[in-house]
């Protein structure tokens, strides 16, 4: 049962990051959809490295508890980081025999 199971085992408050994943229209496919591995494109889109790099911003308040201001600061830093990664030029694709012969024509 996911979070409910974590709550019953931890028996203490904890912070969690929720990432929406959508859902298939067929209810029978939901468990498999939720539990399947993320694709490379999905992992790139989430950018867990950026989330980790900016996570400390959430706890900059005096009480070390996320506030609206620290959450806003975190989200802004994450979005700026993700945008700068998206605007960086992509590495050129690996050369293949097909692409090499196409260039010669």
From TrEMBL:
InterPro entries: Pept_tRNA_hydro, Pept_tRNA_hydro_sf. It comes from the Eukaryota. One of its GO terms (molecular function) is peptidyl-tRNA hydrolase activity. This is Uncharacterized protein. It comes from Coccolithus braarudii.
